Each structure stands twice: as C-alpha cells, then as structure tokens.
C-alpha cells in the first residue's frame, strides 16, 4: 500500500470515528481529576545538563553518571467555570538517582527529588461525551531536594533544598473514553513532561 493511500485511509477513519463520537452529545461535567506519568520533566532536563559539567574536588575530577529517573508523576484537578475553561491546579513529583564518579570510580550516590505545585487553566476546544481535545497552561513553584550518601573522604555527605519557578505547557491533549472515565495523552513541554499519558475522571453537572 502506498503512503498516500495509507494516510488518506487513516484520515477518513479518523473523521468517521470523530463524527460517531460527536453524535453522542456534549460533555457537560463540571469537575475532573486526573493522574498521569510523563517523560522528561524540566527538572530532569536540568539534571541531564548538569551531568555534562565536570568539577574538581580536592584535586580529583568529579562527575555524575547512570541516571535513574522516576516520574514525573502528576495529579490534577479542574473545575469548569465555563464549558471551554477549566481552572484548577497540578501537583507533580519526580526523582533522579545518580552515581558520583571520582577519578573514574564510583564514590557514592546523589538523589534529587522534585515537588511541584502549579495553578493551571485548561482550554477545552472540543467537548463531547466520549471525546475531547484541549490545551493546558500551568505556572508555579518546584521544591528541589538533594542528598548524597555512601561517599568516601573526597566528597562530603551533604543535603540541600532549593526552590524555582516552573511551568507546564501542553499544546495538544486528546482524551477518549466514557462520559466519566477517559484515557488521555498530551504533548508539550514542562514539569509534567514533553509527553504524558494518564486517566481522567469527570463528574458533577
């Protein structure tokens, strides 16, 4: 099958499915809660960039390697003040564990944890009972903690906490399912990740 024919058939199938979903009527729920998992948050990108930097401690070259990311995991709530406008908030959490390498040998471990709270708005530009498309914007703060352990004498054990401004911009979100429970996927950039998938529960008239 040629590529043009494949894309034409895919487009027809998508329009047919969207038309069938539209016949199910309008989504008039007021409240929604969601959980999701993303890929590469802002905080994780910061860690990746920091890994490219080598420092010198007590005459020894020190760098970080073997990143082990968890998350970002998110929970969110929106209230629809208008059918097309949801206002609410997002909580996101993630961790990153790294090996500390001193003079080409493992000297210890460092763990970063990120706790983020962001007020948010959700713009639903298609709201059907079984299908929806939307965009999302959030701005808030991230609390970042860092702790080191099992280190030799060349690098001291330490812990610290810092805060910084953070955000999420989801340019496109698509949700499919029942009037109350839906699966969704988003693409964008921010602390929830540049792609994320999850489940959303909608309730209240």
List keywords for this structure.
9 strands, 2 helices, eight-stranded antiparallel β-barrel, mainly beta, 205 residues
Give your account of this protein's structure.
There is one protein chain. This protein has 205 residues and is mainly beta. The protein has two helices and nine strands. Strands 1-3-4-5-6-7-8-9 form an eight-stranded antiparallel barrel. It is elongated. Mean pLDDT is 82; it is low at 13-23.
**Averaged pLDDT, please?**
82
Strand order in space, largest sheet:
1-3-4-5-6-7-8-9
Determine the fraction of residues in helical runs and give it as a percent range. 10-25%
Major sheet details: 8 strands, antiparallel, barrel
Radius of gyration: 22 Å
Strand content: over 45%
- Number of E-state strands: 9
Task: Quickly count the helices.
Answer: 2
Low-confidence stretches: 13-23
* Oligomeric state of this protein: single chain
Shape: elongated
Q: What structural class do helix, strand and pairing data support?
A: mainly beta
End-to-end distance, in Å?
Answer: 47 Å
What is the chain-wise order of helices and strands?
HEHEEEEEEEE
Summarize the topology.
Elements: H1 3-22, E1 31-39, H2 42-51, E2 55-57, E3 60-82, E4 85-102, E5 105-127, E6 131-149, E7 159-177, E8 181-190, E9 195-203
Antiparallel strand pairs: 1-3, 1-9, 2-3, 3-4, 4-5, 5-6, 6-7, 7-8, 8-9
Gist?
By secondary structure, the chain is mainly beta. The chain contains two helices and nine strands, in the order αβαββββββββ.
